[in-house]
Design goal:
Elements: E1 5-8, E2 16-17, E3 27-28, E4 31-32, E5 39-41, H1 45-60, E6 67-77, E7 83-84, H2 86-91, H3 98-101, E8 104-106, E9 110-121, E10 128-131, E11 142-146, E12 154-157
Antiparallel strand pairs: 1-6, 2-9, 3-4, 5-8, 6-9, 7-8, 9-12, 10-11
Length: 159
């Protein structure tokens, strides 16, 4: 069974999350996301960070000796029919980078448990990647951002 994670700059999220629209404009302008209230998760912590990088990238671009702390939560309770996996989000062209982030949506209330935190250091030290939106070979490659799957993250987990 797949484990799903959620990362947030907040260490005080409630254990019951209600779906909502993301803050800011979801998706890039050329590939807007549908206005479906959801809570977003991924199957790895690095992919979670990759998914939120467009909204927190400026925060991560600080001197090399400073870090940003993000809090890690695990999805522990949800209605199975309310989960939209990344493959569906990509196939329906809802999320242009779902094939990279493995972003999945839960569209009904869900329970999470805080696992701990992860510290991220200056992202300019991480190699960037290019991608094709929706993994569609007919589309031109575009710049994506840091490849967090190749990045060393420093975890602090609760006991």
């Amino acid at each position: 069974m797949t484990k799903y994670y959620h990362v947030s700059p907040s260490g005080t999220l409630p254990s019951l999350l209600k779906p909502r629209l993301p803050q800011g404009e979801p998706g890039v302008v050329s590939y807007p996301e549908p206005k479906i209230p959801r809570v977003s998760f991924s199957d790895s912590i690095a992919r979670c960070i990759s998914a939120i990088f467009p909204t927190i990238g400026d925060v991560l671009d600080h001197p090399v000796d400073k870090s940003t702390e993000l809090f890690v939560y695990e999805l522990v309770g949800y209605e199975k029919s309310a989960l939209i996996p990344w493959q569906v989000l990509s196939e329906k062209r809802y999320v242009h980078d779902a094939h990279i982030t493995h972003e999945a949506w839960v569209t009904k209330e869900c329970r999470i448990k805080k696992l701990g935190s992860v510290f991220i250091y200056n992202t300019s030290q991480v190699p960037d990647i290019d991608y094709r939106p929706f993994d569609d070979l007919s589309l031109e490659p575009r710049h994506y951002g840091p490849d967090f799957n190749r990045f060393t993250l420093h975890y602090t987990f609760m006991r």
